Amino acid sequence: AADKKLTFGFAQVGAESEWRTANTASIKSAAKEAGIDLKFSDAQQKQENQIKAIRSFIAQKVDVIGFAPVVTTGWDTVLKEAKAAKIPVVLTDRSIETKDDSLYVTTIGSDFTEEGRKAGHWLLDNYKGQGDVNIVELQGTVGSAPAIERQKGFLEVIKADPRFKVIRSQTGDFTRAKGKEVMEAFLKAEPNINVLFSHNDDMAIGAIQAIEAAGKKPGKDIIIVSVDGVKGAFEAMMAGKMNVTVECNPLLGAQLMDIVKQVKAGKPLPKRINTKEGIFPMESAAKEFPSRKY
Amino acid sequence: MTEQQAILQMQGIHKRFPGVVALKNVGLRLFPGEVHALMGQNGAGKSTLIKVLTGVESIDSGDIILSGKPIRPHSVFEVQELGISTVYQEVNLCPNLSVAENIFIGRFPFRFGRIDWKTMQSKARTGLAALNIDIDVSLPLSSYPVAIQQMVAIARALSTEAQVLILDEPTSSLDEDEVERLFDVLRRLKAKGIAILFVTHFLDQTYAISDRITVLRNGEFEGEYLAKDLSRMQLINKMVGREVDESSFARQAGDHADKAQTGEPFLAANHLGRAGMLRPIDLSVYSGQVLGLGGLLGSGRTETAHLLFGIDHPDSGSTKINGIPVKLNSPRKAVRLGLAFCPEDRKTEGIIAELSIRENIILALQARRGIFHFIPVSKQRQIAEEYIRQLGIKTSDAEKPIGQLSGGNQQKVLLARWLATEPKMLILDEPTRGIDVAAKLEIMELVKTQCCKGLAIVFISSEMSEVLRVSDRIAVLRDREKIGELDGASSDEQSVFCMIAGSEA
Amino acid sequence: MRLKNCFHHHLFWPCITLVLLCLTNFFFNHGFFDIEVRNGALYGSVIDVLNRAAPLMLVSLGMTLVIATRGIDVSVGATVAIAGAVVAVMIGGTLVIKDGVQSYVANFPMPLAIIAALGVALLCGLWNGALVAGAGMQPIIATLILMVAGRGVAQLITEGQIVTIYYEPFFFIGNGFLFGLPFALYIVLAVLLILLYLTQRTSLGLFIQAVGLNPTAARFSGISARALVLWVYGFCGVTAGVAGLVITSNVKSADGNNAGLAMELDAILAVALGGTSLDGGRFSLIGSLIGALIIQTLTYAIYSLGVPPEINLVVKALVVFTVCLIQSERLRSMLFTPAIHLEEKS
Amino acid sequence: MSLMRYVNPRSIPLIVTTTLFVALFGFGAVSYDAFLSPQVFMNLLIDNGFLLVVAIGMTFVIVAGGIDLSVGSIVALTTMVSASLVQHHHWSIWAIIPLVLLMGCAFGLLHGVLIQVFRMQPFIVTLGGMFLARGLCYVISIDSISITDPAYTALSEYRLMLGSETFISLSGIVALGTLLVAIYLAHYTRFGRTVYAIGGNERSALLMGLPVARTKILVYTLSGFCSALGGILVTLYMLSGYGLHALGMELDAIAAAVIGGTLLTGGVGNVVGTLIGVLILGVIQSLIAFNGNLSSWWTRIAIGLLLFLFCLLQRIIERSRLGHKETAVSPRGSSPAPEKSKPHLWASMHS
Ligand SMILES: Nc1ncnc2c1ncn2[C@@H]1O[C@H](COP(=O)(O)OP(=O)(O)OP(=O)(O)O)[C@@H](O)[C@H]1O
Ligand SMILES: Nc1ncnc2c1ncn2[C@@H]1O[C@H](COP(=O)(O)OP(=O)(O)OP(=O)(O)O)[C@@H](O)[C@H]1O
Ligand SMILES: [Mg+2]
Ligand SMILES: [Mg+2]
């Protein structure tokens, strides 16, 4: 094609976690490979910044706009402006709530509720102990979409078995330090904890340290179920300290660039495109570890 | 006249602060159409009485009767509404607001539902013109020196239609001419039947304007007298509470025993100046001598002091100390070289109100010694107590915050701060401001004794008589330029003013 | 007489608050005061609180001095992150697996890494100090610059990753126990002693107060206010750096984005709860430590009471208000003296 | 230099700041093609209208010598309450708006009373308020609530066309309106001047008989009101209520006010400066968005650096002006003949 390079404006959430960093890196490198001119903007976890970035993309007349919504709500106004400027929009990570489906072309990414369900199913299928199962939950940042949806999916599944009860739930803000701090307090307040469900690997890693400090064996005395599948989690699983992590795949750059090109070419696309995601129990950790990119 | 109905009457007023009884059974009567002087030494309770009267401080017991009705003021606002207008000791205005606003805030002229700035400014100009001041009233108050600020405060008080006007040391930083102008205004108000309460430490002023005098001593009511019945000496005795030898108030022969200007000056400034501040100036200060800086308001005396002390950086000229060239670029350096500077604006440049008297006294000495040569607290207390005694600072103990002292006593603490550093040269900018007669004498004595011990002193005061009294030589400034030097012993006020006027021609 | 003195001591009400909070904890969780010995170290909730509060205590100490000079430092959180990032990257983030055997490699010797991290933290502090004292910017905006950029710098150092440390000796700082107590507490103690010495046995304390209360008067008295302010910020940077080391060591990893997040607010709150006025001047180091402990005890209470996370903040807010009301002299005088003066007085 | 003589010295900081803003905008225009369009400028208002409203309230508080950390949380709470009422309880927008404004005022009033009556430090009180308001959001719902009400949608999508391609949104208009009211309030009412007086010297203000307590309480109430108004604008901007909206907005608001020349020590500042401050923060963001090549961390560093450069220039220019303070403040200069500039105070002395 002799015409000018395709420009793609992408408004990222921020750099709040390793997962996100890997996500950004993947998008950047894929854009370079695909010969797409990427306008990248970092919203520092704020929706208003993302909206501002989208407005500036419209002002710059990019070809396609993409963004990973910080929250699912509140996009209609700015997307209508994009639509008026005839710029197609693709979403990553999660979809948005809107009555007007024509505001975006498609969503590519993972499904947090599904991740929560997967974690729940693994627990129901693999828990070996007898009697009541006391679960403590480390939530993500209060109000954030992954926290809400992972919790929803998880609870939905374990409801099926009355033995499984969440006895404590507290936010660990998705960080190791908070995860550790909260787990410490849990351990003091609750003598019998069987399972830890953590909304991301970082908090689980922090919690593992707290469990060890309390003289218990993570992965054995307390089963640890987590989400994300970052490198650190694999290391912990190899050491037998974590039982399972549900993958949430950030490496969707190549797929995204593909879609951008198709959108520009005007090809019809389904409203939702899921990325390939797995679930990695402890046993498969050593095999997978060398191939982990993030 | 005496049997006329008092417009304001205070009876049996008691007021105690933690640790001090500031007022014990004090009474006061104010009659319309008279100027009433409230006299007393530093810390006698004058300001406290005024604060209690105007609702700034609460009363412990006692009655205030205004126009026959008892009142119990709780806020300044309330008191203003009752027709009492006050100028408090030290300037209590807002430095960030313009001069005009400071005069009219709370009573703005309105037009079309908004403040009418034009009218306000022209009214402010008129108000100040009555005091013979012509300044840009739209500039923030902080761009003017204390003296002007004090005039603005007075203008504010005068601009209200009050039946009672209270002035707490309004003249402390004014020069004679301005005082005279203020008095003209006061006389006019008096003629209109307004009652005026007036605090000052200048006896001349007391006798020049007041009809009646109330004397407080140590928080107690000493007596009320008609000014014409009370001689100066009697007044002083009543304030001080003991017989004072009259001769000590006169200028003494031998004050200026010729100290030969032998050898090098301690400090020699050669062509020292800064554009926009001070024309290059030559000054030499000798050890054991007092150099007075004479001049009128705004003549550049404070600026000279600031340049000498390294607060402002000179952009021309040089300074030598003991013949060695030095670069005075910060007060810290100056302090280390043995200089000391007692600034004119006590409240903002001098005291650190929340710190104790001890800490305030020790501050400069400690700064001179540096962070690690710490003076142990017991030693500090000893030094502080020593100076409290020596300077007669009226306080219950050295750990009291300096902000709670009366104005004059704060000034003494500042002097103590610098004396404690045992400086070689002391610059005093208006050191006698707000200090009572007795204490003023003490300070002048102190200057002289320190001088005899070999200290070099630069003395600045708005009261020319004071300058003449203590100075061995007087450098006369006018319009930020030195216009000449006089010999202290052989000059009088006339010769200084002649010099100022002469070069004007 | 004795009792009355203690009643009027400036630390009295902060202490009461702390005790009340501890009792609340005990009321809901009877094991709160239990301490047992495990592996030669004391183990229990109280120890947890102390241990967790250590970084906050460190930062509040530095913050106290800054606030005493009538300044504020909102960049401490970022400095924590930077120091953590530096030490983590220098000590090493590589896990080498050779023939199925895992081994850890430290890139630089640990002392060097620690010195470098503290050096960088000092630089951060001095940068703030230079902007405040040198360029004359307002403290909040001067430090806001580093607050924003600092996290970027930290992430730049870690390349946006969470750098995990695989070097056992380093873990001692944040996890180790000495004579049964967490090592971090000894660090706090050391910093506290140094500061107490500096502020009470040298004239630093007097100078800081003087500069905070009336900078002009302080300067005219021969104190070089600028140099003082510069170093106070520098020192605050160092305490934040030390806190960064403790946190990094504690979680064995450095997270440029999240380490020390919102710590500035907690530190300022701690200082204020400890009875230091945010308008500068008089300060209390011990008070700030108590303030930090109050905050951590409260956090711990929220965790162990099983408060639902949605209302964490509401609880925190109510406690903050209550604590302030308890400490409000005004309220006490209104309650205990019959005449209520609501009118304007100062 | 000679030009300086004709401008009011008090407006010089504002002129400096404005000039630097124009320079910054010009830099963007030179660097990026589409930057110099009227719409980019309008976007600054559209995207930062709510910040301006909040920062105006903050300016009053800071000028009075206080600080209000609760603004961001009150904004969030406003969005949450609005969204919940309109979506879950089907209230009319015309009932909701007064209600949330009242709520904002109530919050501010609470702060004011605690600060003034109980002599608590503003920083802590409003920090408590910040926790409380944000906490209440989560009590309503931890999830975000999308608003589909037609009235809200219509207001949100309202655009006033200024020419064929340029438009401004309702929030921009409201923000400018608020600015005008604030200018009036600050400079032409007794309340406004009392605020300045209190910031200049609270004790003096008391001694001058000004209603200090009432004004201080009112100032916090005003800030609460502005936060709620800003919250309504955010609700319209995002068409949703969410507990994590406006996170950290208090710092943006403080920064905007301070960049605009407001002194945190109180007494100095004005709302027009705050407008410029908001625009500057907006331009910095726009510059970075137009650049589009910065990684997440370089974004932060760049924001910090731009802020730094800006503030430093501001300081340097003001400093150099301060060096000539005498000339700017009083008529006596070093160059003109001193005889002429003799002040009048003692003019009649020897006549
Ligand atoms: N707020 C306060 N707290 C404690 N003591 C105070 C306070 N204000 C004044 N005092 C004390 O009350 C006494 C009277 O002080 P006051 O200011 O009335 O003296 P004054 O007569 O005005 O003296 P001066 O001539 O120096 O102004 C002094 O001993 C002073 O220390
Ligand atoms: N009547 C007046 N009109 C306008 N400005 C005045 C007047 N009187 C003084 N000033 C201002 O006062 C300033 C000088 O006051 P300053 O106190 O610094 O001088 P000074 O010689 O130290 O006077 P002082 O006698 O108070 O020590 C000048 O900048 C001048 O602008
Ligand atoms: Mg007095
Ligand atoms: Mg002077």
Describe the overall structure.
The complex is a heterotetramer of chains A (294), B (505), C (346) and D (351). Chain A is of the alpha/beta class and 294 residues long. Chain A is built from ten helices and twelve strands. Chain A has a six-stranded parallel beta sheet with strand order 2-1-3-4-5-11, sandwiched between helices. A six-stranded mixed beta sheet of chain A has the order 7-6-8-9-10-12, with helices on both faces. In chain A, helix 2 packs parallel to helix 3 (76-84), helix 4 (112-126) packs parallel to helix 5 and helix 6 (176-189) packs across helix 7. Chain A starts with 6 loop residues before the first strand and ends in a 6-residue tail after the last helix. In chain A, 60% of the residues are buried. The model of chain A has no long low-confidence stretch (mean pLDDT 89). Among the domains of chain B are: 252-338 and 424-505, P-loop containing nucleotide triphosphate hydrolases (Rossmann fold), CATH 3.40.50.300; 346-422, no CATH class. Chain B has 17 helices and 22 strands. In chain B, helix 12 packs across helix 13 and helix 12 runs parallel beside helix 14. By secondary structure, chain C is mostly helical. Chain C has helices spanning 2-8, 12-28, 45-68, 76-91, 110-134, 139-158, 168-175, 183-200, 204-213, 215-220, 225-251, 263-273, 285-305, 312-327, 329-336; strands at 36-38, 41-43, 94-98, 101-105, 162-164, 177-178, 181-182, 253-255. In chain C, strand 6 (177-178) and strand 7 form a beta hairpin. The longest helix of chain C has 27 residues, at 225-251. In chain C, 61% of the residues are buried. Residues 338-346 of chain C have low confidence and may be disordered. The chains are: A alpha/beta (294), B alpha/beta (505), C mainly alpha (346), D mainly alpha (351). At the C-D interface, helix 6, helix 12, helix 14 and helix 15 of C face helix 5, helix 9, helix 11 and helix 13 of D.
